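Hey, weird one. I pasted the DNA-directed DNA polymerase sequence into the form twice and got a warning about non-standard characters only the second time. First submission, copied straight from the form history:
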Amino acid sequence: MPSRQNLIGLWLLLTGLCLVAGLGVLIWLEGALQPSPETRPLLWCLGLAPTVLSLLVGWQLERRLFRPLRQFQVLLARLVASPDAQGDYPVDGWLQPLQPDLDHIREGWRQDRVKIREAHAEGAREAEKIKQELEALLQVLDLPLLICDRHQRLLLFNPAAAEMFHDQPGLGLGRPLSQLLPHPSLADAIRHLPDDGTPHQLLLPGEHHWLRCQLRRLGAYHGGALITLQDTTAALEHDQRWRRTLAQLLPKLRGHCGSLNSATEALLQVEDNPTFKQRLESAIEQESQALATQVEQLTHLVEAQQLSQSALEETWSNDLCSALKAQLLQHQIRLTPIGIPAWMKVDGPALLALLQLLVRQLSSLQRIDEVELEVLLGNRRVYVDLSWDGIPLSEQQLQQWRSLPLFDEPLSPRVEDVLDQHGADLWSIPPQQPGEGPRLRLPLPASGRGIQPLQRLSPRPEFHDFSIADLPAPSGDLASLPLQQLEMVVFDTETTGLDLRRGDRIISLAACRILNGRLLADDVFDQRVNPQRAIPPESTAIHGLKDEDVAQSPPIEVVLPRFRHYVGDGVLVAHNAVFDLLALQLSESGDQSRFTMPVLDTLLLSRAIDPSLEGHGLDALAERFDLSFPPGTRHTALGDARVTAELLLLLLPRLANRGVRTLGDALELQRQIEQEQHR
């Protein structure tokens, strides 16, 4: 149906043509016929009759047909988008006889929806019962637990996991596991878990701790994995306390041995009863020597047995290199990993401490600040080579290093203890060809997995959402994904003014997330921004924000990278997106705050669906589709973003009815509307 402006223009044009033509005919007849005064009024009435008829017919059509048709169009749009909205637009004019049939269709549809809701509510009650039982069980579990789907998106996490990762923004339903635990070895291990549910152990280094992960394939339809986590830092601290206590005990034992020796010397000075004295001397001397020997053996045993073969776990060499690299930077030593990464079976914390000690000793000995680390896969061993620009190490130097303690503590394991634990040794290899430096080689146990090719993964929570597993893989072609299956981040900005290119800045940025066709209630980003300039009173009159409201807020240079991290791999959505997107782009300061993802605009989508209707602003659309702003939320970034999200969810079924089902279809529709506006 043509727009009202076009119809009115066509009507006025036709009436004007009739008037011009009628006047022209009358002027010609006046000159040709010379009518009498009695016939002139009749002649003029006949000449102006088409003009009057056009006015009457156009007015009648607008009143009886075109306006009812627009009302009918709004009624259908509202019925499709919001069937339960009250206060429907009644049709009148020549369409009024259709009202009973429309009422019947509408009421029948609403009754069917009531029955569906009742059935859904019954199913939801059962599901809620199961959910409560599951949550009650998970609430009492102290062990952090995660469940991901086959695409390694989080489906569930328990309160213990939320506590462990309380400061990590990557924790959230539907988020890639790689944002929470950015270890390629973990992603690779999950992909290669056996289908029979056999558990798999993995040790992951963190910034200040080590995480021991137990992975198990789940047999559920989503084909995901169960991950339990244990922070081994507390266990290591407990061991340290035990070693300190033992370290205090052993010197006392040595002191007793010294006392026995002193007593023996004193007895040697006793002259009475030489026979008894001789026997006593011999007994004390033998006991003292035996006690001293046993104490020394105990000391050596405690030092050597702190490391056990049972602590060897599969570790990805790149994870170890990342942790070692960070530690060496504190000593101004740059580590460069080279070669192909590989799996090895090692005691991660002990090997990390050993490598750090060797590199520091090497740096101190030869005054170097750069070392390369290469992992070579042998038959049954993995060779870890440290190479540098210097001279080869002597066997005498290596022998001295083998006796060094790993830590500056009593009873600390020595280098040779860690080597014995792994069945390894230290080899010095001179340069094999010109331009090559010397090497220090450690042959370590290899994992049965050997080398696995690593795939680069493309880079609030509700309690759990297993429907996430039904979504397509994150790495799929976004353009071909159905709109209902997209992860969409709906955002809005408030600014100091409307002239962004002349210095107006963002003062509030907020967003909410749509996942699997649902608006997540608690998953929001809401941050005020210090614009570092005054807020004009006319802008304050709209959004209510004053200078003092944002004075303590961070600047946009800090907020924007956080918002980019919140958006992740989602598709951006806004109402009149060209303004809000420009506000973001003018504030970009680097790759961490760059927005290159597709953008959907609810303003353009609404114009595409209802081109003949007037008013596509957020207020007009909210009134049309019975959407309400909670009190005080209009012209706030978060309030506008949430209503825009609800509007988008209402538009999606109508887009599908018009064949717009994928992101590519929606972007093409927006492009067409933009081209029409610029004509």
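That's the output from the first submission. The warning seems to come from a hidden character in my clipboard, not from the data itself. The mean pLDDT is 80.
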